[in-house]
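Input for the complex:
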Amino acid sequence: MNKRMILRHTKGGIFIHWFNAACWFILLFTGLGLIQNPQLQPLGQWYPNALRAVFGGGGLLIIHLAVAVTWLLVWLVFIIANWSSHVVPFLAQVFTLKPGRDMEWMIKKNLQMTLGYKAMAFFMKPLGLGAKIPDQEYYNAGQKVAAQVMLLGALVLAVTGAIMLRGKYFMTAPLADIAWVQWAITIHYIAAGVTFGILLVHIFMAAIAKEERPAFWSMFSGEVPEEYARHHHKLWYDEVAIKTSDQ
Amino acid sequence: MANQKLAMVIDAPTCLDCKGCLAACKVANNVPDGKWRNWIKGADPERRASSPVVFQPGNCMQCDKPTCVEACPTGATYKNQADGTVVINRTLCIGCGQCLAACPYGARFKNTDLGVADKCDFCAERRKFGLEPACVSTCPTKSRKFGDLNDANSEVAKLLKANRAVRVANEQTRTDPNIYYLGEPGPTNWTVQARMPEAFDFWRRLADPVVKAVVGLSGLGVLAMLGKQLAMPKDAPPADGGAHEEAGHE
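Predicted:
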């Protein structure tokens, strides 16, 4: 088997991925611990009680805010510094869906990942579709949708978080806009929940799913085997192959 | 030490409306301009014509069923089990103001100097040094009385035993307040109802189940994929499958 490697992630991309992962991990666990109301706490009161026993209630809030502000500032610097090299191409890729092909991919891939190739082919037959999973670009349709949801979730979390922060520390007009703060909390929770739902799939795909194991290692080394690229991201592979053969 | 149940018994007819309690409270607790932790309600206009004028001094009622605690998302506001007061942990308060609307008595305000909710705590700082709340100490007619209802020998417990006392409460919001009035303190039917903010109601009624469903479905999907991976470790495309599939690929 050809073991030639293809560059998939730059050092900057790898850094921002793991930086973001670390921040989200801390923010999720401290944020969830900030909810201590039996009507709202999804895990039960033991969770905030346990975290408060370790960090203290106020400590939890300080960690959450400090990490959140750091997260936002680092991202802002990253976005400005990499606007044309990373950000614009990334947005263009994840927001370009080819409805027919991507819908077909979604249905087939989901069936294949949960029931296997045979069952997928069986269900596709009456629809007149073959068993072939459509070729994908740099990102497959699932990654695109996940990226869209996580981007939107991150944006909503940042904005609602900023509203809450302003509400606590900078609100001088007494109560004039306190309903904004209250809605910000509720929306912050929804955004975190939906993002976490997507994150579960993302983490499974990367760390547990066997097929995507090379993609997981590429988040450290930056490279994927040529064979993996051709199999999972054929359209991207073809592009890269043409570019390299041109040189 | 047994748990206390701190309470106030207010002898309404002796209140002169001198506002000494308001001033003392403001100084003792460093309450910002324009905000008050306690109050004196005016007499009922109908009664004013026919009988001696009566005032109704008040402050946070340290309710046994506090609606403010129910509305607090972070647990910053809680019922202190040791002495029965409702207190605010300022380090945990995010200043969202949900407790403000949830208190039918309007006993809470946003302390914009500190970015947190604020209210009467029966002068916790003074009590540490064995002092009574500032409003009680300063009251010239001793209209406000303070003590532990769980202690049968306390002045407040004896007063409640010997006299008919009433509490001021809203019919719909039964918060079980811990301020008792002697004499006829004017209207005892508090007209303001506790109100949970819309965002809070939306969260507990709709956002909570929706988020749980999203995360639950996602978790189920992951479990299904994990199950398939374990059950069919050698799952491969059928022979007539993808055009670019290569034999031997797992």
